Amino acid sequence: MTASRTRLIMGNWKMHGTLADNAKLLAGVRAGANTLALGAQLAVCVPFPYLSQAQQVLGGSAVSWGAQDLSAQTHGAFTGEVSGAMLKDFACRYVLVGHSERRSMHAESDQLVAYKAKAALAAGLTPVVCVGESLAQRDANQVLVVIQQQLAPVLALGAEAVKKWL
Description:
five-stranded parallel sheet; globular; TIM Barrel; alpha/beta
């Protein structure tokens, strides 16, 4: 018999919002989560400045929260970076790694994404590894090749590491 997995429904509101806008949105998400029986884990990934707000509004609810990225480094002189330990200070459960925008706009390599996933696991966070092709790659029928290439360094972390977040 195969064990069923709990589905995860996660929202990522990118670089949008203000404290006032977020207060309404988070309250609505919390209220909606308490009235819906989706049979799924719910989460939001918010911009770093709003992690405290997400923690305050969503704490004790059916909605988890996380961050949109983290550093592969644990500490040090890495201006602008955020470590897994810092995210744990805000009770984050999840963190996105390898989002298409990070891969394209910040030239994040597949190997760096794997290092970030490893850093997330080491900090007790569940990495949500984003994969996917560009429109040009899709048009060239390279979808599977691209996804296999993106996942290879993550899978190379080993079965025990990968099992932690399955």
